[in-house]
Amino acid sequence: MPSHAAALRALLSARTFLHMPSVYDPLGARLVQAAGFEATYVGGYVSGASRVVSEPLLTMTEQVAIAEEVAAKIRIPVVADAGAGFGEPLHTRRTVREFIRAGIAGVHIEDQLFPKRAHYHKYQVHGIPAEEFAMKIRHACRERDAVDKDFVVIARTDVCREFGLAPAAERLNRAADEGADMGLLFPRNRDEAERAPRDCRLPLVYVMSRGNRDGRPIFTINELKEMGYAACIDAQIMLLTAFEANRRMLAELRATGAWSGDSEATFVGARKAIEDLIGLDDMYAIEEETVETASPRR
């Protein structure tokens, strides 16, 4: 069976458009797989928020551990947010090696300061110099080539948010020269989003940041395909949907002691679906073959 990285490479070679919902636990990843998505993504925002620390305070080992938990429980490849490589080029090399060891298919590495600042979430750009970013990508790619040539390195730049498309595209084109496989930037409007795939020499990933407050556009998958994007990260959809549903449920449960949003039949179906996703029937079968048949009935 091919590695997750080789599977991701095969999907990209076949020009499969990858729509990747962002997950933060194995059960969510199983749902993504069961729904038919070809790949999934472990993002910094959802990892940090789900641990109530925020993305800037996540450590490399925490993010690797979350991604590894996800990758171990699914067959489809996982792409992960590797932040700013968690340091300088030397640290970035170790970051790449640790994600490869964890069974991750690819990561994106950005041109933000490290350590990342909480003001990042207020859309404040703290971009490092272009030459420093290029060196990080160069060494990320060297580590990829030394450890697993199938591993996918995605160069991410945030400078489009403040300085526009031209300097962002220039950084991604430099990253292409350093060996990056794909690119990721943050167009501010439809015009920049349409121009970006033409101005960049790397296949581009679009980040669908639902709930963003800086006006970045949300597109349909067909629109992104028509513009020429190779993939889309749906960065917050599972976290926000689950959070909002649970918030409504808990408010009613606290106020009335009951929940009217789902019937008991719905809960029975949901519980069975969860048990199917985690493979409970297979566990029953093993126990029936071994310990249950040998155990005295009480």
Write a structural description.
This protein has 14 helices and 8 strands. It is α/β, with parallel strands linked by helices and 298 residues long. The protein folds into 2 domains: 240 residues, Alpha-Beta Barrel (TIM Barrel); 37 residues, no CATH class. Strand 7, helix 10 and strand 8 form a beta-alpha-beta unit. Helix 2 crosses helix 4, helix 5 runs parallel beside helix 6 and helix 6 runs parallel beside helix 8. The longest helix has 20 residues. The model has no long low-confidence stretch (mean pLDDT 95).
Labels describing this entry:
single chain, 298 residues, alpha/beta, TIM Barrel, eight-stranded parallel β-sheet, 14 helices
Helix and strand topology:
Elements: H1 4-13, E1 18-21, H2 26-34, E2 40-42, H3 44-50, H4 60-72, E3 78-81, H5 89-101, E4 106-110, H6 130-147, E5 152-156, H7 160-163, H8 165-178, E6 182-184, H9 190-199, E7 204-208, H10 221-227, E8 231-234, H11 237-256, H12 264-277, H13 280-289, H14 291-294
Parallel strand pairs: 1-8, 2-3, 3-4, 4-5, 5-6, 6-7, 7-8
Short précis:
With 298 residues, the chain is of the alpha/beta class.
Q: Give me the CATH superfamily of the largest domain.
A: Phosphoenolpyruvate-binding domains
Uncertain segments:
none
Mean pLDDT rating = 95
Backbone CA Rg: 21 Å
- Total count of strands: 8
Q: What is the chain-wise order of helices and strands?
A: HEHEHHEHEHEHHEHEHEHHHH
Domain tally: 2
Gross morphology is: globular
CATH class term of the largest domain: Alpha Beta
Helix proportion range: 40-55%
What share of residues are in beta strands? 5-15%
- What kind of assembly state do the chains in view correspond to? single chain
CATH topology of the largest domain: TIM Barrel
Structural category: alpha/beta
Question: How many DSSP helices?
Answer: 14
Query: How would a crystallographer describe the biggest sheet?
Result: 8 strands, parallel
Annotated CATH architecture of the largest domain:
Alpha-Beta Barrel
Q: Give the spatial strand order of the biggest sheet.
A: 1-8-7-6-5-4-3-2
Distance between the termini: 44 Å
